[in-house]
Structure formats: C-alpha cells, structure tokens
Amino acid sequence: MEAPVTHPSVTVQRQTTSSKAALTLAALIVLTIPTMPFWASGGYIRWAVELSCLIAIAQMWNLLAGYAGLLSVGQQAFIGAGGYALFVLAGKLGVNPFAAVILSVGLPFVLAIPFYLLLKRLDGPYFAIGTWVVAEALRLLTSNISYVNGGGGLSLRVMAEYSQHQRAIGITILSAVLLLLTVGGTYWLLRSRHGLALTAMRDDPVAAESQGVNVARLRFLIYIAAAAGTGLAGAVYYMAQLRITPESGFDPYWASICIFVVMVGGIGRIEGAIIGALVYFFATRFFGQYGATYLIVLGLLTMFMALYAPGGIWSLLTKIRDWPWFPTARLLVRNR
Questions:
Q1: Per the structure, how many domains does the chain have?
Q2: What is the span of the domain harbouring residue 117?
Q3: Domain contains 210
Q4: Which three-class secondary structure state does DSSP give residue 334?
Q5: Looking at residue 330, what is its pLDDT?
Q6: CATH code, domain carrying 48
Q7: Beta bridge partners of 155
Q8: What is the distance of C-alpha 214 from the center of its chain?
Q9: Among 65, 155, 222, 247, which residue has the least CB neighbours within 10 Å?
C-alpha cells in the first residue's frame, strides 16, 4: 500500500474551533440529562424529554428528506408504531418498560421494509402522498384492533410500580441515549464514506449514480434507519406521556412539525434540525396559547423560509459567521 501523498503547505482539517466547542457542549448536555432527576423539577425534566424527542424526530426526517431526497409526510406511522410496541411489550407481555423502549424499535424497523418496497415505485409528491396513506392505514387498523383497545388507546399502568424518581431516572437516560443514537449516529454516518455518497446524492442523484453510488440501495437503508430512529423517539415520548391513542400516535400533525422544524432550521444540515427544533419548542411553550393564530404564523414562517431562505436559519447564520457545529467536509488549510 502506498503512503498517502501530502503537501507541506496544506493540511486536511476535519474539525474547527467552533465544532470542537459544539461537540464538547453536546457531550456535556448528553451527560447532564440523566442527572436532572437529582436537581431539576419535574417540569424541566418533561421539557428535556420532549425536546430530545423533537430533535430526534426532526433529525431523522432531515436525514430522509435532506439527504436521501425522500419527502415523507407519514413519519407518524413509525412514531405510533414505536409507541404502541412499547405499550404492548410492557403492558401486555410483561417486558420491563425501560427495556421495552429499546425493543420497540423492532416494529418500525420491520414495518419500514414492506412500506418502502411498496412506496419506492412512487416519486416526488406521489411518494409523499403514499407515506401519508400508509400512516392513515396504520391508524385505522390500530383503531379496530381490540387487543390494543381500539380507538380507546392504552395506558402504561405498569409504570405505577416505579416511584416518580425512578421513572425520571429511566426516562432521562433513555432521552440521552436517543440523542446519542439519532444526532450522534447521523453525524458519524455523514462523516463516513457513506456520508460522501449521501451528500452527492443530495446534490444530484443522477450524477451520484453515474459515479458509482447505489442510490436505490442507499435510499432503502436510510428509510429504514429513519423509521427506527423515529420509532425510538415515539416510544420515549409516549412513555413520558403514559398513554397513547391511535389519534395521538398517528397524528398527521407530527409530519407538519417535521416539515416546519427542518425547513425553518435548515434542511440538509444537522445544525438546522437542532435550531428548528429549538425554535418550534420554545415558540410552542410561550405562544401556543394563541391557538389558531399561532399556527397560522408558523405556517407563514415556513412558507417565507422556503421562498426567501431555503437554507433556513442556519444558512443565514453561516453568512454572518461560518462557525460549523458538526462539520462533515474535509477542509484544506494552508500552513503558515
């Protein structure tokens, strides 16, 4: 094997000062979340759990639409599937509920395979409509299955066996693991050789395929990975809620949240999904009381960003100061 050719005047750089600071902060946040039951109130713990789930779901949709080019408006299918898998495993089959959260990923993973084999024949808006139809079919099917109490939904009564402190410890640990797997996993993937293929596919799928990228196979794998990550977020979220119904688990509003978060934050960037999730989360907490007016404003903001700032808030920030948090490209830096 030949030694890599280097040039004394330049260096290949994968990290920047801003990314080192961002990664350090991200690691501290992931490590801090499980400690919250020992110093934070229940309200702040709920905020941390919900925000973790929101970031994870947005990150999976961003990976799906921003890199694989698969515009889905039916990711609620996997949120509901993950949630119901948890309630069945823990409530019906007696599995430890915290272990059941991890095991619940299996159902979205399995469902994603036939779903994609069916949907891959569609393209563009037809694919998007197909994902919504699949999610609605799952909602109607679940509403008519007596084993899961039909439209009445299920409650996670088994959690009564644990104290409030024990539940808080378990759910915060799961939230930290969720962020590590979805955000950290996405970052690891995009920095790998598959990440180069994903970036090429995002920019031009035809050109990527002409250069040897197996676009069909990569889209299939990303669809399954996004389904599993979304399902895990759904399980964590509904464990915190202690109740699930077909209307809540398979609510189309989940798709609207994904679109808003990623479009406003910045599609095709890890940072964009995080920023969009933060904007949506805090806007909901502080302005959700205005009801329909608030939702109209969110819709208009999404349209404005799509028309005048398609790169989202993150692209606007990079024009002011290019400080990447999770860089995936290799930079050539001139040596002094």
A1: 1
A2: 10-334
A3: yes
A4: strand
A5: 64
A6: 1.10.3470
A7: 243
A8: 24
A9: 247
